[in-house]
Design brief:
The protein is an alpha/beta fold. It is 35% helix and 28% strand. It binds adenine.
Length: 240
């Protein structure tokens, strides 16, 4: 089955396109889906655009039309954990929608009302392997990714999210990919490089560090693809 790589922005997907051999290009519902080879792998690359609707649509298209499995979502994120620095890597243990908020009914933040869906766990083998291949000069955290349809630039909101969800970073696609994958029983992973502090200094940090951060997360995913042939070999690896 092809491995799908989904990124929100041109800067990110271009790094994959520069490295993979593109064999076919399709236009589907406004997305450009690249069929490509990387090493021995059959991959599908898509710039999904920013936000949860794009990410969800794109993931469902990749599953339905391209039989993709797993789906790997990559790119940048704002730090939520106080001990994360710009350039650090977060490999998602799980993802949650921070902007799903029906607390007035007593439902905890992130829980999709009237379901048991809240934290979307990533594939244990993929995340263990991503942690192993993470770049030598980067700090890697296996942690919780918090997703919402807003670029977070607010220290008070970030503190609320830390309290209620205990998340490590904020971004705008991961939980949407995770929810679609969970509902389709397809494994997924999210790898994010920290581009800003999500606390009001974000805009400057984000512009300044976007390219480096995108490059770091793409490099990890490419190393992951290099290593993925050995996926059976890590079955005995301790879960992370
Ligand atoms: N992606 C990178 N930084 C972000 C932030 N502060 N909020 C949401 N998504 C982001």
């Amino acid at each position: 089955m092809p491995i799908a790589v989904v990124s929100a922005m041109d800067e990110e997907i271009q790094l994959y396109l520069d490295t993979c051999t593109v064999e076919q290009t399709d236009e589907v519902a406004g997305f450009t889906v690249y069929t490509a080879r990387y090493g021995g792998h059959d991959v599908r690359l898509v710039k999904c655009g920013v936000g949860k609707t794009h990410a969800a649509m794109c993931t469902q298209i990749l599953i339905d039309r391209y039989d993709a499995s797993p789906v790997v979502c990559t790119g940048t994120a704002g730090a939520a954990a106080l001990d994360l620095d710009i350039g650090d890597i977060v490999v998602a243990r799980d993802c949650v929608h921070h902007d799903v908020d029906v607390r007035f009914l007593g439902i905890p933040r992130g829980q999709i009302p009237f379901t048991d869906l809240r934290f979307f766990e990533t594939d244990p083998d993929l995340r263990a392997q991503a942690r192993e291949v993470a770049l030598a000069d980067h700090t890697v955290r296996v942690g919780r990714v918090m997703t919402g349809d807003a670029f977070v630039q607010d220290a008070a909101y970030l503190e609320t999210l830390r309290d209620e969800l205990e998340g490590d970073c904020v971004e705008m696609e991961g939980a949407a990919v995770g929810q679609v994958c969970a509902l389709n029983d397809v494994p997924y992973l999210v790898v994010r490089a920290i581009s800003d502090r999500a606390d009001g200094s974000s805009e400057i940090d984000f512009q300044e560090f976007l390219h480096d951060a995108a490059r770091s997360s793409a490099q990890i995913v490419l190393h992951l693809l290099d290593a993925i042939d050995d996926i059976d070999a890590i079955d005995n690896m301790d879960d992370v």
